[in-house]
Structure formats: C-alpha cells, structure tokens
Give the backbone structure.
Amino acid sequence: MTQQPQRQPYAAGPVAALRRIAFLLERGREDSYKVKAFRAAAAALLPMSDEEVQTAVAAGTLTTLPGIGASTAAVIEQAAAGEIPDRLARLEEQYGGELTTGGSELRQALRGDLHSHSDWSDGGSPIEEMTFTAMELGHEYLVLTDHSPRLKVARGLSAERLAKQLGVIDALNEHLGGPFTLLKGIEVDILDDGSLDQTSEMLARLDVRVASVHSKLAMEKAAMTRRMIAAVRHPFTNVLGHCTGRLVTGSRGTRVGSQFDAKAVFEACAEEGVAVEINSRPERRDPPTKLLELARDIGCLFSIDSDAHAPGQLDFQIYGCERAEAAGIDPDRIVNTWPKDRLLAWSHG
C-alpha cells in the first residue's frame, strides 16, 4: 500500500494563505489577473467568522460566494483543515526565497519606503492592503504617493481627490493607533517648465513629495536640465524620482533614459537637500550605476524606494539596497534609514 505524503501543518488560516499567495505572485511579477483572484477571495472571507467558513467548507458551497472560484476554494479548504495549501507551498518554493545576494544589512536599516501607489491611481490594491503589508515587512512608515492629475493614464489625483485621500489616511492612522504611520505623499509630475503638477495648498499639506518626469522624456538635453533643476529647487520637492525614466527590462519593453546634465542636476539636489531616488523596480534600476556613483561623489542624499504598485512589490526595496551597498553609500545619507521625526523635520524643512 502506497503511503501518502504527510502534509505540512498550517495555522495561519485561509485569509492569510490567500494574502500570502497574492503577495508572492506580485513579488514574482506574475500577471495581475492572477493576483486579483486571490485578493478578491480574501476580501470575501474577511466578514465571515471561522465557524461560517468551516460550515461553507463542509457544505461544499464556497464557490457560491462572490469572489471565490475553484482554485481559491481549494486553498481555503486546505488552510481551513490546518494544512499548508498546495498552491502556497509551490509559490513559497518558487518566489519565497532571497531576491538578491546582497543588500540585506542595509535593508534591515531601512525604516520605511517613500514611494508607493494604491488603487486610487494606478496601483492594484487598496490603501489598507498596502499599509498592512508594509507593517508585515517591518516598516515603521510608508509614504503613499499616488500620481498627480496630469498623468491621466494613471488616474492621477485632482486636488479634490487628494484631499479626500488625506482624510482616509487620517482615519486609518487613528484606527491603527500604534508605532506604524502611513504618511501623506504624492508622486507629482514635473511639468515642461519644471513646475509641479499640484496646487501649492495641497503640496503644503503633505509629508513627502516625490517629483518625477513622466512626459517628454526625449526632451533636448539643455531643456531637460533646466526643467529638472527648476523642479529640484521648488520649495516643496523632497525626492527626485527615477531621474532618467529609463526601462531596462519588463513587459513594457525597454526605453533609453532622458539626457540631462547630471552633474548640474545632482549639485542642485545636494544644495537643496533633495534626495536622489534609488528606484528599486527591476525594470528601472534608476539611476544607472555611473549616475548613482556621481550623485554619491557630489554628496547627495538618497532614498531607496520600491515604487510599489502592489503589496508584493514593496519587497523590491532589496534591489535598491544591493545597489546602494555596492556603491558604498553611507546609510546615514539614505533618508529612509532615519526615524520618522527626523525624516519629517527634513521633508518639512
């Protein structure tokens, strides 16, 4: 008689299993439609008690619940039985390991992430899910930086929508009531003349502002240099986001970076105390290594950011940490190694 393999015990429950599967799929940069199925199933279970879930499992009626299909029902059934779901076990093996061979010491020093997106703009998950995942990763703070209005393809936030979002953040922080803080931010477009794509009134209400170029990336070098320096010298700019705008891999293809006088731009950053973002997305690796080293030598501050558009992508910070470590950047020059109070004193200064 063939002996059945012994299943690994699993005590976290069905919702945790579904969320972990979604996280690992995002970490592995799988298609978003796969992720949505597991997050939808987790949301469907949240209002249910353990007894109600067990009753649905016993009755075989899970798939009659909105948001739960055959594959997610199989995960729920196994997790409810105290067994690690087969899908979760496979994904842990495939995507659960270390993403890099370096950067772990610097990653431990990071206290937060200054660049993230929710489904209020072009992110894939609610603010709450981004927040809970940041907490699970050990962050002390996360800055929510949804896009500004000009970036219509990313559902950029008007001043009115941004004001509503700030109220949601206040309510969420009040509910959490703990050491973690969701900070108010924006990834604001740098317009053609170097001005910022949001009202001064709204920018003044934020904790951190990441300024990035998203349009006319092929602008002539001198004009792009003037544009970026004007943005860096804007009194509300804290971080210069993905400075070249390049893409080196990924589903969107490749794109050469913008041309500008990097020495002049980074000298302006150093003078103004604006951090140069080390964008950790694998398809960006921005700034390129030579520019990263130039900014280091000029004396710039840095921010190692995930630019996460989904909870699982918050783990991408390790890629930026590996690059910063290889470049020998002093951790104290990386603003998100700082405690929240020091970070806010800098960003409001």
Q: What stands out?
A: The two ends are 73 Å apart (CA to CA). Strands lie at 112-113, 141-144, 181-189, 208-212, 239-240, 275-279, 301-305. Residues 1-5 have pLDDT under 50 and may be disordered.
